[in-house]
Design goal:
Low-confidence stretches: 13-20
CATH class: Mainly Alpha
Mean pLDDT: 82
Structural class: mainly alpha
Helix content: 40-55%
Order of helices and strands: HHHHHHH
């Protein structure tokens, strides 16, 4: 009987939902650092949103755009009129700063991957 209790407890531990760590959503350390420097302050360390910005993962608003459009949004920003919640994000999204166009392209591809 005790053996069944132990097995039951162990099964429960392995079946509990677990949070996804930052390491699991970034393909490599370089991309993670680009994201953390350019996006995490508003969108959170795991891209699940924060007080200042929505989630970048499993986001229906982002899902409808292709990589080129996402890249343009990162480079130029998004005006409040084009955001999903203009009343909440009155300033819209600013353009990315202090990252190269190549890094912006890498982020765009990652964000698209998160929203397939």
């Amino acid at each position: 009987m005790n053996r069944f209790v132990v097995i039951f407890i162990l099964c429960g531990v392995f079946l509990l939902p677990t949070s996804i760590s930052a390491a699991e959503i970034f393909p490599n350390k370089n991309i993670k650092m680009i994201y953390l420097n350019a996006c995490a302050e508003c969108h959170g360390r795991n891209a699940k949103g924060g007080g200042d910005a929505p989630s970048l993962r499993n986001n229906d608003f982002i899902r409808k755009y292709d990589v080129r459009t996402i890249n343009e949004m990162l480079l130029k920003g998004v005006s409040k009129e084009k955001t999903r919640y203009p009343e909440k994000y009155e300033e819209g999204m600013p353009a990315t700063k202090n990252i190269t166009e190549e890094e912006t392209k890498i982020l765009s591809e990652l964000i698209k991957k998160w929203n397939k």
